[in-house]
Design a protein that fits this description.
The complex is a heterodimer of chains A (403) and B (398). Chain A has 403 residues and is an alpha/beta fold. Chain A is built from 17 helices and ten strands. Chain A has two domains: 293 residues, 7-stranded beta/alpha barrel; 87 residues. In chain A, the strands form three sheets. In chain A, strands 1, 2, 3, 8 and 9 form a five-stranded parallel β-sheet that branches. Chain A has a three-stranded parallel β-sheet with strand order 4-5-7, sandwiched between helices. Chain B is 46% helix and 15% strand. In chain B, the strands form three sheets. A six-stranded parallel β-sheet of chain B has the order 9-8-7-10-11-12, sandwiched between helices. The chains are: A alpha/beta (403), B alpha/beta (398). Chain A: Belongs to the glycosyl hydrolase 57 family.
């Protein structure tokens, strides 16, 4: 002990192209941006594939081959897998190679990387089932551990995940939910019987995901043996060290020239130098360790920003109106029974759309500015709302009644 | 410091900018002797003001001849109509050179460390003063001849005066990166010699009485889209009208208000008729003060389709009232604002689609009303003054 548990999030949204008011009623293709801008989904996917997915997968496969004790896990959004199938089959194949080793677990989430838990529990359950089906079809495995979009979590999320058949769930190990407790144990969510809760060790995770290349950081440059020594410090007061991060950390957020791939390549041998350490997948952790205590999380927590709450996607007037507009269409969409309308509606639920509408730009909001492919949150909102309006008109035309 | 106009007798942003800068500098402990070409009321703001011609006081139509935004061609047209007895000399260039002659005596009697001059009208005066005292010369650029002519044909004489001013200056100050690019690319000035000092803004006066025509429009449930600025090529009022046509086709309840006057007045009225939008358009004339504030506050959207806008103070005014704004990317103010929409001035469809979105989705107005005033409040003249002071200190220490 402790076991290092790696989970990487792999997701790309279908970004809404610059969709003008004058497109409404004429143009039903919301996601086919073709310019040289940051709303061309194919172009972005190909870029990230070259910088991150392909080299990172090569690195990971090499690590798995050299270290029989090495483990990792991924959560793939369905919209990522769909884009991989269309834009870069080689990327999908390289992920399948990893999963085929039997030492890489695939987690469950909503197909559309959506906020549907907040909008419609029925829709949430359907999207979770869709993602499970997609994973089964592409990888031949069934997700047993759940992670909600952006690690949005509360007792209720855990309770519903348990009802949907999951045996584990992931969450942010935020200070305000843990208090004096440590993230380095397995917990039992309030109101559940079987499901285990794994919490992100955000200090060690963020050392890699955010601080790795920061020259202003006292620990820069971070070597694998230094990092392993921090893992060793958990020895005796924790069963697991959960390192949760976006997969784009490798090569995209931290560029290759920062040495991030070399760091990863050397991490297993440095961690395994200590005889008590090993690596584990989330399911292995849950099989090995019984929950040490119940953890009560009545309010939503997430892994975003310093607030670790929902304010990156909810709360400003743009986000709230957009959210209401898309979920208002649930009933007419379901009633239409039209697969194309259903698909467009679901792709409009992806959390990123709401993230791009975030206006808290002047403190930690700089992160939003960096990741925002639109010129402003107002542009993001406008293209989005125009697309939703077009979808509404299509439903009205089809249903023949006012929606 | 050499200026050409000063509030309340200003025709636009140049006077407002000079006032803001002088107040900021004075508050920061810099003593400013402000020079104006002729006697005028300066509202008691200036501690030390000198008039190059202390005897002439200009009023009415003759004052219009001193409008710093006139292109030379427009000046010649106007001066034909003017009262010839009120002034000597018929060319604006003559006035500028005469101002320079007077500057010599002022420089000899007024102790100073730096000479700072605002726009081409004052560069010959500033250069003369600097030559007399041997003190460094700062050429501040609020607009170039390319801006004034809407990227049309610049007057060769004015261009030559500007270029000579920039070349002789120890430091050039541009009000935006947009203007700096123009100075570097079109006047051949090394980029390292041009500093950018964005204008600040004062909180606009509290809203006063709403003009009756706006009250009437609101009673009818009209959506009001506002243009504020001089009616000249530079400000793109014709693009505003073409945008209006696109918007009105979708939203018959939209009403467009043009606040300002200028040499395109007649042309725009013809254009409105030609576009068939005259019923959806009001020419409100030049509004100022608390009345203008009231109009901002009543507006549903504001558009600034400037063709070439070195800064664009009215955009910050609109933001300070939380009005959803669509601002030309060909402007300096778009470099310091994020809580607004931006469009290329020629992209009438883009501007129209953004105005239509503002009218359709109330969350935009709600969100911008929360965020934009905070952003406008961050643009202080103190910050502009601090940067100018740093430039002075560097020049003095050389």
């Amino acid at each position: 002990m402790p076991s290092v548990c790696l989970y990487f999030q792999v997701h790309q949204p279908f970004r809404v192209k610059k969709y003008s008011y004058f497109n409404i009623g004429h143009d039903h293709q919301y996601f086919n941006g073709e310019g040289a801008d940051s709303l061309n989904n194919r172009r972005i996917f190909e870029k990230v594939a070259g910088k991150c997915y392909l080299p990172a997968n090569r690195t990971l496969l090499d690590m798995l081959e050299r270290h029989p004790a090495f483990r990792a896990s991924f959560s793939f959004s369905g919209v990522f897998l769909e884009q991989a199938e269309h834009y870069a089959p080689a990327v999908l194949e390289s992920f399948r190679d990893l999963v085929r080793t039997g030492r890489v677990e695939v987690l469950g989430e909503t197909y559309h990387h959506s906020l549907s838990f907040l909008g419609s529990r029925d829709e949430f359950a359907r999207q979770v089932a869709m993602q499970g089906e997609k994973v089964r079809r592409l990888f031949g495995v069934k997700p047993k551990v759940f992670r909600n979009t952006e690690l949005i979590y509360s007792n209720e999320v855990a309770q519903l995940a348990e009802r949907l058949g999951f045996r584990g769930i992931l969450a942010e190990g935020a200070d305000h939910i843990l208090g004096w407790r440590s993230p380095n144990f397995v917990y039992r969510p309030v109101g559940t019987k079987k499901i285990g809760l794994l919490l992100k060790n955000y200090r060690l995770s963020d050392d890699i995901a955010f601080r790795f290349s920061s020259r202003a950081w006292a620990e820069w440059p971070l070597s694998a043996d230094k990092f392993a020594s921090w893992v060793n410090q958990v020895n005796g007061n924790g069963t697991n060290v959960n390192l949760f991060m976006d997969y784009e950390t490798f090569g995209e957020h931290q560029w290759a020239d920062t040495g991030i791939f070399e760091f990863m390549r050397h991490l297993p041998e440095q961690v395994l130098k200590h005889p008590d350490n090993d690596f584990a997948t989330p399911s292995e952790l849950l099989a090995r360790h019984r929950p040490v205590a119940e953890l009560d999380v009545p309010h939503f927590v997430s892994w975003a920003d310093v607030e670790r709450d929902l304010s990156a996607w909810r709360g400003n007037p743009l986000q709230d109106d957009a959210f209401a507009a898309v979920y208002r269409l649930e009933k007419p969409v379901q009633e239409s029974g039209d697969a194309v309308l259903m698909d467009d509606w679901r792709k409009l639920q992806t959390s990123d759309h709401f993230y791009y509408m975030c206006t808290k730009w002047f403190a930690d909001g700089d992160v939003h500015a960096y990741f925002n492919p639109y010129e402003s949150p107002y542009e993001a909102f406008t293209s989005y709302m125009n697309a939703v309006e077009d979808l509404r008109l299509r439903l009205e035309t089809k249903g023949g009644e006012h929606v | 410091m050499f200026g050409w106009e000063f509030p309340p007798h200003n025709s636009g942003g140049l006077g407002v900018a000079c006032k803001g800068l002088v107040e900021g500098l004075t508050a920061g402990g810099v003593e400013v002797a402000f020079v104006l070409p002729y006697r005028m009321d300066t509202g008691g703001v200036l501690k030390n003001v000198r008039f190059a011609d202390p005897h002439t006081q200009l009023t009415g139509s003759s004052a219009a001849l001193y409008n710093p935004y006139l292109s030379l061609a427009a000046f010649k047209l106007l001066s034909l109509k003017a009262d010839p007895g009120a002034m000597s000399g018929h060319s604006l260039v003559d006035k500028v050179l005469w101002y320079a002659e007077r500057a010599e005596a002022i420089a000899q009697t007024e102790a100073h460390d730096v000479v700072h001059a605002h726009d081409w009208l004052t560069y010959p005066a500033g250069l003369r003063a600097s030559a007399v005292s041997g003190k460094p010369f700062v050429a501040h650029v609020h607009a170039t001849e390319f801006d004034r002519t809407g990227n049309g044909l610049p007057n060769a004489t004015v261009y030559a005066i500007e270029k000579a001013g920039f070349e002789a200056a120890d430091q050039v100050v541009a009000v935006s990166e947009f203007t700096k690019r123009s100075i570097v690319e079109r006047y051949g000035i090394p980029a390292g010699k041009v500093s950018v000092v964005h204008n600040g803004t004062e909180p606009p006066p509290a809203p006063g009485k709403l003009p009756d025509f706006i009250k009437f429009l609101r009673l009818q449930g009209k959506k009001i889209i506002l243009f504020v600025g001089r009616l000249t090529l530079q400000k793109g009022p014709d693009y505003f009208l073409r945008t209006a046509k696109r918007v009105i086709a979708e939203r018959p309840d939209a009403h467009f208000v043009v606040a300002g006057s200028g040499d395109m007045d007649d042309q725009l009225r013809h254009l409105a008729t030609e576009l068939g939008i005259a019923d959806h358009l009001t020419f409100a004339g030049f509004l100022r003060g608390s009345e203008l504030s009231a109009v901002y506050q009543a507006a549903d959207a504001y558009a600034m389709p400037s063709v070439s806008e070195p800064f664009g103070l009215t955009a910050l005014e609109a933001l300070s009232f939380g009005v959803p704004a669509v601002i030309s990317r060909q402007s300096g103010v778009s470099e310091v604002t994020r809580h607004c929409f931006k469009s290329d001035f020629w992209d009438v469809d883009d501007m129209a689609s953004k105005i239509l979105a503002v009218l359709k989705y109330p969350a935009l107005k709600k969100s911008l009303a929360q965020e934009a005033p905070k952003e406008a409040a961050r643009s202080h003249w103190h910050e502009a003054a601090r940067k100018c002071r740093a430039i002075y200190e560097k020049l003095i220490s050389l």
